Amino acid sequence: MDSANGQPATTATIPTDRRQYSRCTLQIPVDLRQEDSVDFQHLETTDLSRGGCYVRLLHPLALATYVQVTLWLQNSPVRGRGRVVTRHPQYGNGIMFLELEGTGEQLLSSYLDAIPV
């Protein structure tokens, strides 16, 4: 209790990282296509995790945009669907993976597990 006004004392909280998976700083080729478009953008990740990636874009996509993603891991495509969850104007987007096709999750996990920490 704060004796000055009889109210409970409050403490500041430090924001926590809400990510479920740790991320690696990796430059991986990625093809990105908005679901309502036929045009792909050939980009490169800056960060990659089991749960998503960050890509640099001069003109970032709007939040909540659904995208088709193809990651190129050691010349093997890992395809899936994602959603834009962060947007930084003139810098890029954070993409959360919603689903990866076939053995995509296993391939991505194996790829990330092989990276020295």
What is the CATH superfamily classification? predicted glycosyltransferase like domains
Q: Which structural class do you get from the secondary structure elements?
A: mainly beta
Radius of gyration: 19 Å
Run of helices and strands: EEEEEEEH
Please give the largest β-sheet: 6 strands, antiparallel, barrel
- The number of helical segments is 1
**CATH class (first level) name:** Mainly Beta
Summed up, the domain count is: 1
Unreliable parts? 8-12
CATH topology: Thrombin, subunit H
CATH architecture heading: Beta Barrel
Query: What is the overall pLDDT average?
Result: 87
Summarize the structure in words.
The protein is mainly beta. Helices cover 9% and strands 44% of the residues. The protein contains 1 helix and 7 strands; from the N terminus they run E-E-E-E-E-E-E-H. It has one helix at 104-113; strands at 24-25, 29-34, 41-49, 52-56, 66-73, 76-88, 92-100. It has a 6-stranded antiparallel β-barrel. The N and C termini lie far apart (45 Å).
Give a concise summary.
The protein has one helix at 104-113, and strands at residues 24-25, 29-34, 41-49, 52-56, 66-73, 76-88, 92-100. It is mainly beta.
Question: How do the strands and helices of this protein lay out in sequence?
Answer:
Blueprint: E1 24-25, E2 29-34, E3 41-49, E4 52-56, E5 66-73, E6 76-88, E7 92-100, H1 104-113
Antiparallel strand pairs: 1-3, 2-3, 2-5, 3-4, 4-7, 5-6, 6-7
